[in-house]
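Need tokens for this chain, all 102 residues.
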Amino acid sequence: MTEPLLHETDGTSGAKTIEVLVCKGFSGEIVRARIALDDTVETSLPLIADQIEYYSPDYEKIGLYNMSRDFEYRMHDRFRDRDTHAGDLLFMADGQACHKKS
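Here are the structure tokens for all 102 residues:
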């Protein structure tokens, strides 16, 4: 049985966490990952990558796009500030692969 997508409190830090779905850029595989709502994207990328076994030589070049709400995260965005919800589908890819074309 899978874990619920509802908000939970992380026992170690007390931070609110949610479970999101992350699509791995080039493989298309979709994996569940837990994120802290108050973390920045920059802080979370290596943690998300570890959870979904997505390895990159340069985490600064990874892009993260919210497919459920149709926007691209910036490195200093906080998930709470961008209104990220449990169950949202995020697309994660190296380089320009997930940058939204205007």
